[in-house]
Design goal:
This protein has one domain. The protein is an all-alpha fold. The longest helix is centred in the last third of the chain and has 31 residues. The protein has 5 helices and no strands.
């Protein structure tokens, strides 16, 4: 039909930067922009924290944070994949 976006590209984009896949497919735009802003701010904060502060007695927190980040990345990727398939079918 008139809408032909790749669900795999959208899923990959959403995995790397939350919300970028939603912006790419122009679906759930408010959610996409909010997630994209959140992921950029989060990465900027993580980069700006000195390594000795980040890792001092916080290995467990960092591991838990990384686990949550990966799980949410997969969740948003799966959601945008199916959203793109749905929009392509219209």
């Amino acid at each position: 039909m008139g809408y032909d976006k790749s669900p795999w590209i959208a899923a990959f984009m959403n995995f790397i930067f939350w919300g970028s896949g939603y912006v790419y497919i122009k679906g759930k735009s408010i959610l996409g922009i909010g997630l994209l802003f959140t992921s950029i701010v989060n990465i900027a904060i993580m980069i700006s924290i000195p390594e000795n502060v980040l890792l001092a007695n916080s290995e467990l927190f960092f591991m838990w944070f990384s686990f949550i980040w990966v799980v949410l990345s997969f969740t948003f990727s799966i959601d945008v994949y199916f959203e793109t398939k749905k929009l392509n079918a219209i």
